[in-house]
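Can't attach files on this board, so I'm pasting raw text. These are the components:
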Amino acid sequence: MRDFAKFVAPATIFYVLIMVLPITLGVYYSLTEWNGVDQEARWIGIQNYLRLFATDSQALASFWFTIRFTLSTVVISNTLAFALALALSQPLKFRALFRAVFVLPNVIGGIILGFIWRFIFVRVFPSVGSATGISLFSLNWLGDPFTGYWGSVLVFVWKTTGYLMLVYMAAIVSIDSNLLEAAEIDGARPLQRLFRLIIPLVAPAFTICLFLSLSWSFKIFDVIFALTQGGPFRSTEAFALNIYFEAFSYSNYGMGAAKAVFFLVVVGAITLLQVRLTQRKEVAQ
Amino acid sequence: MLLLGPSLSVAAGGQQQATEQGEESVELHVFHFRVSDRAAWDKLTAEYSRLNPNITFNVEIVGGGADWITALKTKFAGGRGPDIFVVDGPTQANLWGEYLTDLSDEPWVDDAIDMAKDPMTMDGKLMGMPFFVSGFGFIYNEDAMNRAGVGSVPSTFSELSTAAARLDDDGTNAFATGFGEWWVAGMQFANAPFAYREDPYGFMQRLADGEVSLADDALFNDWVDLIDLMMEHGESNQLTTDNNVQTSLFTNGDAAIMHQGIWKAPAIEEGLTDTSIGFMPVLLNDDADQMDRLPIGIPFWWIVNAESEHPEEAKEFLSWLVMSDYGRAMFETDFNMVPAYKDIDVSGLGPLAEDMQNYASQNKTVPWVFTSWPDGTYREFFSHVQAYVQGNLSREELLTEMENSYIRLSE
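---
Top answer:
C-alpha cells for the assembled complex are below.
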C-alpha cells in the first residue's frame, strides 16, 4: 500500500494541479460575476447558465458552427487519413518522403499555420485566380460565411490528417500478413479484404482517431483565431473562440467560465459516447 | 503579424555597483504594446540604468496582432502585475480602477497638453501619464489624385464622391476599405459618426439610456452613405482586407485613400517613395466647417501599479522619460511620434505628422470616443458593419443592431 502511494503520488499531484484545480476554480467563477481584474468576484449563483440558454444567441450560433465543423472535419480527415495510410503502407517509391510530407503540417503550430493559410487565401489565391482564370481560386475566400466555413475546414483537415494517417498506418502494418495472404488465397477480392478484414482489424485505430479528431475539432481555437478571427461577421466563431471573447473582450469572466463548464460537459459526454460505441466494434486478431 | 515576448535589458554590473553604494537594487517590470519601439526601449532603459545603477528593467512588449489587453489581464491573474503598464482610455481605466496611482503631483503634469489629461482625470485626480499624440483619418495619395484630375483635396462628402468617381475612371480603386480589420471597421472608422458632433459623450450617454435612435440620426446615416461610397469605389473582397492588405493596396498604388493612422507612416514611406501623402478628415457630409477636423487622441497612458513594491522608483523613471533632455530627444530620434507635452519640439516626422500637428494646433480635432465605449463594442460593431457590407443587413438594420449592441453592453 505504501508503494502504491509512492508510485501514484507524482502523477496525482500534477493531475490535481493542472486538471482538478483549474476545473474547480472554473466552476466556482462560473457562479460569479467578475470582470477578470477586480479582486473580488461577486457570487450570483446559476444566473450565468440561465442567461447562456435563454438569451445568448451568438453562443448558440457558435455552438452550431462547432457541431457542423466537427462533423465535416472528422469525416473528411479520417477518410483521407485512412486512404493515405492504405496507400502509403504499400511498397511505393518515395514512401518515406510522402509520409513525412503528409505529417509535416501537424508539426507546425496552429497559429502560424492559420496566418500562413490566411495569406494563401487572401493574397495568393486571387493572384492565381487572375493568372489562370480558374474560378475556384477567384472565389472570395474567407470573405463570406460559406468560403469562411470551408476554408477553416480545409486548413484543419490539412493540419490533422497527417497525424491520423500515422495512427492508421501503424495499425495496418501490424496486421498479421498470414491473415491477408490466407484471404487472398481463399479468393477474397481487394474490396472484400478491405471491408471484411482490414477495417475490422484496425478498429482500435478508429477508436483512437475518432476520439482524437472529435476532441480536436470541438476544441478548435488557434487555427480559426489566426485564420478568420471568427469572421466574417462572427460566422466562423467556434465555441472556444466565443468563450475567449466573452471572457476577455467583453470582460465577462464569470459568463466565460460558465460557457467553458457547459462545453466541458458536452465534449466529455460526446467523446465518451463515441469511445463506447467504437470499442464495441473492435475484434481480437 | 504577431509579435510577443519579453525583452530584457539589464545594465552590466548594475547589481554590483548598487550593493557597493548600499542602495537597494530594484527591478522595474514594464508592460506595453509598442512592438515597434523595442529598440528605443532597450536604449533608454540602458541609459537609465547607467545613471541609476540600482535600477534594472524587465520590459515586456505584447502587441502587433496579439491581444495585449488579455495578456495584461493574465499578468495580474498570475500574481503581481507589472510596476508600470498602459491603458488606452477611460473604459479600461475603470476596469483597472483599484490598481491606478494618483499622479497629479508629478513634475510633468503642467507640461502635458490638456487634451491628454482630461480622459484620465478621475475625481479631479490624474491617474495616468500621457506620452504620444496620435491621429487617424483618410490617408490620401496626392499624386494619384492629381493624375486622376482631382483638383484639390476633398473637404466635403460630395467632393469625396466626385474624387472617388474620377479615381475609378483613372483605373485605380479610390479606397482600400479595411472592412476586414476589427480595429479599423469596428473601432476607429466607427468613431466618426459619434465624434463629429457637438457633445459626443452626452450623445453616447443618451444612446446607452435608449433615448436616441441611430436609424433616425443624420450623422449615422451620413456614415452609412460613406460606407456605400467606399463599397462602390473600393477593392474586391473587402471583408478580407485586413490592415496589412489595406496598407499594401495603398502602397502598391492600387488604392488612393485608406482609413488609417499615423502609425502607418513608416510602412507607407518604405513602399511609396517620392509620393506626397496627407491626412484628410472623415468626410461624412457637406458641412465643410464641421467636417474639417481630424480624430486626434492619446493612444495610451502610463500607469503606475498601485500594488507595486517600488512606486517611487517607477514614478521617478516616468518623469525622467518626459522631463530629461535624453528622454525628450527620443520622441524625434527614436519614437518618431508627436509628444503629448507642450514644450517638446519635434520636426521632420513626415507629412502625416505635420498634417496632424496642423489640425491639432488649430484645435480642429474630434475626440477618440471609442475608448469610452463599453467592453465588447468593437467586436459587435465590426460584426454588424461586415454583415452590412456582405448585404445581410439593410441600412436600418445595421443602425438598429449597433444601437441594440451599445445599449446591451452598457448595462
